[in-house]
From TrEMBL:
GO molecular function: nucleic acid binding; zinc ion binding
Name of the protein this chain belongs to: LYR motif-containing 4
Coiled-coil blocks: none
Region (Disordered): 131-175
InterPro entries: Znf_CCHC_sf (IPR036875)
Listed Basic and acidic residues bias regions: 131-140
Compositionally biased tracts (Polar residues): 147-166
Amino acid sequence: SDLRSRLASQITPATEVLGANGCLEILQDDFNGRYPLVLRRLDYFNRRQIDGELFTDFISKLEELSKLADLDKLTTDDILVFSSLCGTKNKELLDDLLKVEDPNLKKIKKAARVFESKATTKAKLKIADAETISKIEKPRQPRHPGNQRQDWRSTNKSQPRGSTKPTPMPAVNDDRPCGRCNVMGHHAKTCSWPKDTICKGCKKRGHIKPACRERKA
């Protein structure tokens, strides 16, 4: 068996059963090496009644585990250590804590702080990477949004150079002339003449001379 092959070099026909370096001591050392005390105690604190298991059987199993765990040698510090190990839901943290040699409350706290510090650093780096990627992938906004109204002088490329009169806007069905240029077919809101146009007749802004009401009066 596996046990015999492991202990073949340590136990011989001449090895005493009891005493120092005896068979029982060798077997105990092998057991402790393969099933450390910290794991035995952890198994005890983690033990719960299984579905369908009789309560009396559950108690008997706890008694067996308690003997293996040497509960009579536990201190308050030990109880806190194993309660914290059993209480954590972070499996990665638990794996790190179980690697601590001869664990006590001070060592467990130190290992937990190191783990949490690393986790915080990873989270910050992850957020920073996400923000960097977001900035790279974010499309550039146009300088002039499509819904921004532009002046007719910059948009009307077909207008002859040096001309001050804009091209008329598309016609609309209306019996009244435009209040800004006095031309039929559109309103003052859609007129291509600038809003701040100065009338050469009354010198006021908002219309040109053909649409001047004071001139008509």
